[in-house]
Amino acid sequence: MQAFTVRVQQERFDSGVEIDRLSHNPACGAVVSFNGLVRDYGDRQDVAALQLEHYPGMTEKALHTIIEQARQRWQLQAATIIHRVGHLPLGEAIVLVVTASSHRKDAFAAAEFLMDFLKTEAPFWKKEILRDGSAHWVEAKASDQHAIGRWQ
Amino acid sequence: MQAFTVRVQQERFDSGVEIDRLSHNPACGAVVSFNGLVRDYGDRQDVAALQLEHYPGMTEKALHTIIEQARQRWQLQAATIIHRVGHLPLGEAIVLVVTASSHRKDAFAAAEFLMDFLKTEAPFWKKEILRDGSAHWVEAKASDQHAIGRWQ
Amino acid sequence: MKLNILYFARLKDSFGMGSEQLETDAASVDELLTELRQRGDNWSCELAAGKAFRVARNQELVRLDAALGDGDEIAIFPPVTGG
Amino acid sequence: MKLNILYFARLKDSFGMGSEQLETDAASVDELLTELRQRGDNWSCELAAGKAFRVARNQELVRLDAALGDGDEIAIFPPVTGG
Fold this sequence. Notes:
The complex is a heterotetramer, with two copies of chain A and two copies of chain C. Chain A contains four helices and eight strands; from the N terminus they run βαββαβββαββα. By secondary structure, chain A is α+β, with helices and mostly antiparallel strands. Chain A has one domain (about 5-150): Molybdopterin biosynthesis MoaE subunit (Aldehyde Oxidoreductase, domain 3). Chain C has one domain (about 1-75): Beta-grasp domain (Ubiquitin-like (UB roll)), CATH 3.10.20.30. Chain C has a five-stranded mixed sheet. Chain C is globular, with a radius of gyration of 12 Å. Classes of the chains: A alpha+beta, C alpha+beta.
């Protein structure tokens, strides 16, 4: 089994399968997952779907770098990051982060760290597609920039 | 759908199904899960299984109380706690906590809070069964008691 | 006054029982513990003042000065270790 | 010196192109930006000094004083919004 995995894909993923995959290591007592979903409010109230663009090549590199940073801070047996791209209707999952550790505090902290850094350092861009068919690029949020402050 | 659910059971659970169940609310952008598994080291190095005992009635009450405490602190759309009892071999899942919120920080904090309080306030007791067939009750860890300190 | 007393985990094993009905005049958890300790052996040892155990009255954790009432369900158990 | 330049998201839409090959003497990211701004219109507007955008050289984020080399892949894009 590949302990540290990064995938960028159009297809849906199965959170349960990914969690189970990291649960087979008998040294791991704690597995934490984060699912990010397309919500009905972002900048606007009438979002029907997202269009996700990324920078192929740099994306995978950035996600592996983020995982390396997490491994330097916490005891981490395994981690998976899956990020979808393309057209994602309301309610669909966008991103999955799974971390496995012997210690629940490490698994929690690493998962939150990976999400915070992914949101500010991985080259993905969301375009919101509204019910009337119009679309606009989502602006970066100051709160995401602030979120990484506490890890420094 | 029951937004806040507590279950105590002998049977295995399916993390993916439970996560998906909390992912249908279009207001929830963030779903966090914690899986706790039987590890090959607790107090001892040669654990083959756990025997989980609980206090029927009080357990469900305590878990609902813990969820109520979390809802008073964070914006939480839904939460599920499933805790298994009985004989659990090495590698099997013991506990699942799932939280759903509009905000990832809230989903993460609530999941960690639920686990910290579950570990110190819900009436479950673990007996470790070793490979040679002998068994002993697990002692409470000071680190679990300390873990709830930061929420106060 | 009649109490329904429950023991769990290590205490259940040590006392050789999971529950008992007790006719008592103990007005508080503290007084009940004093009475139980007088049974000697494992009882005085497991319930010694310095020992780590918890008491729930009608399924809620209480302090040792909590009052007791007729028909109360009192549970005595070691610190919990779930999750 | 030849650079391979990539644009993403809002910048790709605004410039009407996702990539270009550029023959330039710009020695740093800063000098490259100055050159691009001279195209006027959307270029001067989107890449104005106060505007929020990021630059990656060979797929790693760099500061504006980063040096450029022949064959570098330079990407210019808005702050990221994934996850």
